[in-house]
Amino acid sequence: MSERPRLAVIGAGPAGLAATLAAAGRGVPVTLVDSGTAAGGQFYRQPAAELRARRPQALHHQWRTWERLRDGLHDHVKAGAVRHLTDHHVWFVERLPDGFTVHALLGPEQEDPATVHADAVLLATGGYEHVLPFPGWTLPGVLTAGGAQAMLKGTLTVPGRTAVVAGTGPLLLPVATGLAAAGVELAALVESADPRAFVRQSRALVSQPGKLGEGAAYAGQLLRRRVRTLFRHTVVEAHGTDRVEAVTLAALDADGRVRPGTGRRIACDTLAVSHGMQPHTDLAESLGCRLDGPRVHVDDEQRTDVPGVWAAGEPTGIGGSALALAEGHIAGLSAAARLLGTEADPGEWATAAKSRTRQREFAAGLDRVYRPPAHWTEQVADDTVLCRCEEVTAGAVREAVDELGAGDLRTVKLLTRAGMGWCQGRMCGPAVAGLAGCRLTPSRRPFARPVPLGVLAQEPDRPTERGSS
Amino acid sequence: MSSPLDLADAHPGPAFTVTLDGREIEALPGQTVAAALWTAGVTSWRTTRGEGRPRGVFCGIGVCFDCLVTVNDRSGQRACLVPVTPGDVIRTQEGTGCDE
């Protein structure tokens, strides 16, 4: 067959788009496989086309970068250099003697299969938020900060009228300002980090003055809107019967413990909460890629240790969109060189490599600043549900740990069902690890998402197409 | 009072009608089921299998499966992913949604 070697990029966020443009720019045909209805991923999530938004940039920052990515993709698709498959939810990447088969489910229903064959695969699957539990966190109206932002960006809707934004991390500020701009009254922004930690990390953080400026601009917007911002505070409980009606906040001491007597109740109908991000590593895990802790191990060229598999963006370590762009660019150029049978030349991506180094240092600095309260488990009552799918309480997990001797996520799961439900432990994993006092280890699930039995049954007869949908 | 539609200067096509548990609500082209329900002031549309507790959107990006809903007799749909279409019959999903 004379067709040129093809690259499959999985994920059309900043990393996947940068990789696609880099590889296609070198003449490598690319199939961009993405679960979204349009490119952008979570960071550049766009309002649905039918909403006909004339000013989507009001919901975003770094809009020019998005325009460059969007227009670049459009040009490559038009020229036939890139196939962009939307609404393709990838559940497995299969390694074959002559390349890879990417297995996906089509559309929001995710019942019908599609496959894509490629000679190399680039994983740009992004990340998802984790939320640590507290009493009341399963009430409707309590949602992830990123979820509130995704609904706002994608559907131009907001969850309620009065919100508290809480937790820790660089996501809280843009979520709070976004909700406020969209007409939601912000009752409070609650950040568990200690402002003095920013000073201690000043060397790592000043390496990115642009990013600090971004943060300062958000903070200024909140100040202008007179939003009450509380550092070294945490939400200890959400109240309500069928939906959240109020939250209780409390101050934290220097050790990260709730200070007794500091609780105060604030009325709200929405609590947007986040305690950080987790890399999506399922596809890398089932391909057998080496992981370093929660992240996919990559070399300087963004290659995993499985030949023919690259990774970029959040899967290789949470670092945000600028890092994802740099990593995606490097991964795309490296993959293109290998597929074209040439030696990759790091000189070609020297600028991106410098940016990658700086962004990784910045992300490491942020990681040391933004921390959930050290003793958050003390606030989790025995009747608090930890595993939202299987309704397993903290008491049941504690019993498995303290009385039955469970010391890891898998044993807790086998004893209690925590992590056995629809979300496959993605939501409760960090919580169970915290209560069990063990590390959050990759679960090495065979499939990245639920797959209908009918799809598995018809697999042997699947049509294997080279990149078509 | 600003709204998200104003913020993004959105001009969607005309609203259409769907039902939630028999009650008519308005939805906009381009909205997901979750977005239409939020706009109608509804925040939960599932009860859990064990305790029968109400749930709605949690992760908003299709990861957590908390927002499961029954749409046109198909249970287990993620409301945050499924687009709403004219005439949709949306029902609160009780338990697994399979024994109705």
TrEMBL record, chain A:
Q: List residues of the BFD-like [2Fe-2S]-binding domain.
A: 386-434
**What sequence ranges are listed for the domain FAD/NAD(P)-binding?**
6-316
Query: What Gene3D superfamilies does the record point to?
Result: BFD-like [2Fe-2S]-binding domain, FAD/NAD(P)-binding domain
Out of the domains of life, which is the source? Bacteria
CDD domains of this UniProt entry?
Answer: GlpA-like_Fer2_BFD-like
What UniProt keywords are attached to this protein's entry? Answer: Oxidoreductase
- PANTHER family from the UniProt entry: ANAEROBIC GLYCEROL-3-PHOSPHATE DEHYDROGENASE SUBUNIT B
Can you say what this protein is called?
A: FAD-dependent oxidoreductase
Query: What is the scientific name of the source organism?
Result: Streptomyces cylindrosporus
Automatic annotation (TrEMBL), chain B:
Keyword Oxidoreductase annotated: yes
Under the heading InterPro entries, the entry gives: 2Fe-2S-bd_N, 2Fe-2S_ferredoxin-like_sf
* Alphabetical keyword list: Oxidoreductase
Which domain of life does the protein's organism represent? Bacteria
Q: Which Pfam families match?
A: Fer2_4 (PF13510)
- The name of this protein is (2Fe-2S)-binding protein
Q: Which organism is it from?
A: Streptomyces cylindrosporus
